[in-house]
């Protein structure tokens, strides 16, 4: 048995961590007190390559906040010296990124095939979408709503008992390639819907009375790339004429205050907003589907990581949505519900003031289309693992998130419009 386990570990690590380029990379958290600290970080960024984890870019750093960023191994000493000399308070969240990547695969589940307690590669998820639909024809149907830049099919699962004129909730996962816990949640949600229908009173009522449109991975090309080439990739894999830099940030590509704030016009940046709103095929597929089903979609839920937050519009502006009081109360109650299981604490509020301003997000866009209940979830954790949440936390993360999603669903059913 032991020999088998060792063999599996070796194949997993070599398959999942192509290249040695993360060996010795560090993730720092810096405590930013004032504008002077922000300008020091700008100075540092001009000389060293910084991969911002939270916030997403240099421009989004605010006084009295923390900044998490990854530094290449060869720059780590120089960065620590700089932070120390300038009296910037910091801690090292991850001292060796590569060993943390390997530690991600710590779940005790089987080594092959699809599993709800593991991170699954795209081909496994794709096969799962077909299987789960064919095994549950009375509850799930699968459709293709478009293709990605590289030609991968974007699959959507419709979950619910067949019926006419049913209201719907749209939920997507995997906007940002490296946020692996996000697609894991969409898969978990579908499993729970199927598993508990007819056995658990709330889920039974939900699926009888409404439909869930579940998009397990939006950014398929990027997700595949995080498995084959670069675990830390965030954007799509689209190319632009005249630039050698690859990819667009899908969550800056929607037509909601497009590229106004917290987004970049530089194709090399992590928050590149694209050449135009909806320039990306993936954005177009999501937006077209929602536009075509606007009369039935009553809530929009988009799942990201990390930082344990439940956000609502707006992010492209500091203005508040018309039903701000209602959304705030709903978010407060949902995160309270989420905390009842494992005590996980979430913060909540409008995107711009709660996390940072960012234009072109799908949640703001959905809200501006008239979908009154629009939320972004930032799942676990708060930075100890960041984008490398261990598989052993998938179950707990998904279970608690289910509570919040079910709370929102229940509320939406009672407040149909």
Automatic annotation (TrEMBL):
Keywords: Carboxypeptidase, Cytoplasmic vesicle, Disulfide bond, Hydrolase, Metal-binding, Metalloprotease, Protease, Secreted, Signal, Zinc, Zymogen. The active site is at 378 (proton donor/acceptor). GO terms for molecular function: metallocarboxypeptidase activity; zinc ion binding. Residues 118-412 form the Peptidase M14 domain. SUPFAM superfamilies: Protease propeptides/inhibitors (SSF54897), Zn-dependent exopeptidases (SSF53187). GO terms for cellular component: cytoplasmic vesicle; extracellular space. Residues 1-15 form the signal peptide. The keyword Signal applies. Its cofactor is Zn(2+). The keyword Transmembrane helix does not apply. One of its GO terms (biological process) is proteolysis. It is an enzyme of class 3 (hydrolase). It catalyses: Preferential release of a C-terminal lysine or arginine amino acid. Its EC number is 3.4.17.2. It is found in: Secreted; Zymogen granule lumen. Gene3D superfamilies: Metallocarboxypeptidase-like, Zn peptidases. InterPro entries: CARBOXYPEPT_ZN_1, CARBOXYPEPT_ZN_2, CPB_M14_CPD, M14A-like_propep, M14A_act_pep, Peptidase_M14. It comes from the Eukaryota. Its main location: secreted. Belongs to the peptidase M14 family. PANTHER family: CARBOXYPEPTIDASE B (PTHR11705:SF20), PROTEASE FAMILY M14 CARBOXYPEPTIDASE A,B (PTHR11705). This is Carboxypeptidase B.
């Amino acid at each position: 048995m032991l020999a088998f386990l060792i063999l599996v570990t070796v194949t997993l690590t070599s398959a999942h961590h192509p290249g040695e380029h993360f060996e010795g990379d560090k993730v720092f958290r810096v405590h930013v007190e004032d504008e002077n600290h922000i300008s020091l970080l700008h100075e540092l960024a001009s000389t060293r390559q910084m991969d911002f984890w939270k916030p997403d870019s240099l421009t989004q750093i605010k006084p009295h906040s923390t900044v998490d960023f990854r530094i290449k191994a060869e720059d780590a000493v120089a960065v620590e010296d700089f932070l120390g000399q300038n009296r910037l308070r910091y801690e090292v969240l991850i001292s060796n990124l590569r060993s943390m990547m390997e530690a991600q695969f710590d779940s005790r589940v089987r080594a092959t095939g699809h599993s709800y307690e593991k991170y699954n590669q795209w081909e496994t998820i794709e096969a799962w979408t077909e299987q789960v639909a064919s095994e549950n024809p009375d509850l799930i149907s699968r459709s293709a709503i478009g293709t990605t830049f590289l030609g991968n099919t974007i699959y959507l699962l419709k979950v619910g008992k067949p019926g006419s004129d049913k209201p719907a909730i749209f939920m997507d996962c995997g906007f940002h390639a490296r946020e692996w816990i996000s697609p894991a949640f969409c898969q978990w949600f579908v499993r729970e819907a199927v598993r508990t229908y007819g056995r658990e009173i709330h889920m039974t009522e939900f699926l009888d009375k409404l439909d869930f449109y579940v998009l397990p991975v939006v950014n398929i090309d990027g997700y595949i790339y995080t498995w084959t080439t670069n675990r830390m990739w965030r954007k799509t894999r689209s190319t632009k004429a005249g630039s050698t830099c690859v990819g667009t940030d899908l969550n800056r590509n929607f037509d909601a205050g497009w590229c106004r704030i917290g987004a970049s016009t530089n194709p090399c940046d992590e928050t590149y907003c694209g050449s135009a709103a909806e320039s990306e095929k993936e954005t177009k597929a999501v937006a077209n589907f929602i536009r075509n089903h606007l009369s039935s979609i009553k809530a929009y839920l988009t799942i990201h990581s990390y930082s344990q937050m439940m956000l609502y519009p707006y992010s492209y502006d500091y203005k508040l949505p018309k039903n701000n009081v209602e959304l705030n109360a709903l978010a407060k109650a949902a995160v309270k519900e989420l905390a009842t299981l494992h005590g996980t604490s979430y913060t909540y509020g409008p995107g711009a003031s709660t996390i940072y301003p960012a234009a072109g997000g799908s949640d703001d866009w959905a809200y501006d289309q008239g979908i009154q209940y629009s939320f972004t979830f930032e799942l676990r954790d708060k930075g100890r693992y960041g984008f490398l949440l261990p598989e052993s936390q998938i179950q707990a993360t998904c279970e608690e998130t289910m509570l919040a999603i079910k709370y929102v669903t229940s509320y939406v059913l009672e407040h149909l419009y």
